[in-house]
Amino acid sequence: MEFFEHGKRLMKKKSLYRILSLAALACMALGAVSVQAEDKTLRVGVRGDIMNFSYQSETNGKYYGMEIDLAQKLAKELGYSDLEYVQVTPEDRKDMLLNGEVDCLIAAYSISDSRLENFDFSPAYYVDDTVIMVQKSSLFKSVRDLKDKTVGILGGTNAGPLLAIKLYETGMIGEEVLLNNDDETRYDNLTVLKLDSYKEVSEALEEGKIDAACMDGVIANAYMNEDRDFLELDIAEQEYGVATLKDSELSAPMAEAVQKFLDDGTIEELIDKWD
User: Fold this and answer.
1) Contact criterion met (CB below 8 Å) for 27 and 257
2) So what's the pLDDT on residue 265?
3) Which residue in 29, 170, 178, 261 has the most C-beta neighbors within 10 A?
4) Which residues, other chains included, contact 45 with Cβ-Cβ below 8 Å and sequence gap of 6+?
5) Are residues 160 and 153 in contact, defined by beta-carbon separation less than 8 angstroms?
6) Contact 148, 190 (CB under 8 A)
7) DSSP state of 122
8) Cα distance between residue 102 and residue 131, in whole Å
9) What are the pLDDT digits (tens) for 213-242?
């Protein structure tokens, strides 16, 4: 299954304005909103570990991918004279935006109610699913096969909590958390191991240190090979948006620019380019 293609289909089904802040909507109702960006640098928090999406080359240090191209187009649209990529991680991206180390996040950052307390989000530019990946040699055919097993995730992401909610709903685990620290979370029938990078998660899966890996589909697709498979389980949809500080002067222009690129097909072209 091609996750970029899946993301395009899901995006077309969404009401893309529903996650705009009231402030952004009010400004947009008055007409085009511009940001005073001339002779300024837009500092964008990006990931460096998602192939085809937001990836830093080990060879030349440059960034490539769909989100990187989107950042370039947004900076130009908003009138910035320069663009700076600042690499962020799931653990530090929230604080880096709150502390003003970056102006916005274009970093596979999904829109959620808890994040909307601190940030404004643009319309969703990509919609993805959280998935579970296993080695075919495990012979796992169902999520039920993961009872009393270990699932690996990237620490700092919401893959673990989303998986736990889904497995609780299916009755596979109970509501009690037996242990929770920076390294792992244990439930009555499942252990979630938190690793430092997606590369480590993939290697742990191949080496048998974990029985399955849980991550967003666009990320899993980069680590998929002929020896792996996905288990059938609808865990959760993830909507990626550009995050800006709540009520900042950048929020409304950024939201409007993303919506423009959704309407004119620019974002779809970027998805096609990196598919």
Assistant:
1) no
2) 98
3) 261
4) 86, 87, 88, 93, 96, 97, 101, 102, 104, 105, 106, 107
5) yes
6) yes
7) P
8) 30
9) 999 998 998 899 999 999 999 999 999 999
Output DSSP code: residue 205.
Answer: H
Of the two residues 167 and 35, the one the predictor is more confident about is 167
What's the burial of 6, exposed, middle or buried (CB within 10 Å: 0-12/13-18/19+)?
Answer: middle
How far is Cα 189 from Cα 247, in angstroms, rounded to an integer? 43
Question: What is the rounded CA–CA span in Å between residue 172 and residue 29?
Answer: 48
Cα torsion at 92, 173, 186, 137 (round to 10°)? -90
Helix residue ranges per DSSP H, the chain: 3-12, 22-29, 66-77, 93-98, 159-169, 198-207, 217-223, 251-263, 266-274
- Classified as helix, coil or strand, 43 is strand
Indicate whether 16 pLDDT > 70: no
Q: Strand, coil or helix: what is 173?
A: coil
Tokens of 14: 């969404």
pLDDT value at position 6? Answer: 45
- Cβ-contact 50, 65 below 8 angstroms: yes
pLDDT band, residue 30 (cuts 50/70/90): very low
Q: Which of 207, 210, 206 is nearest to 191 (CA)?
A: 210
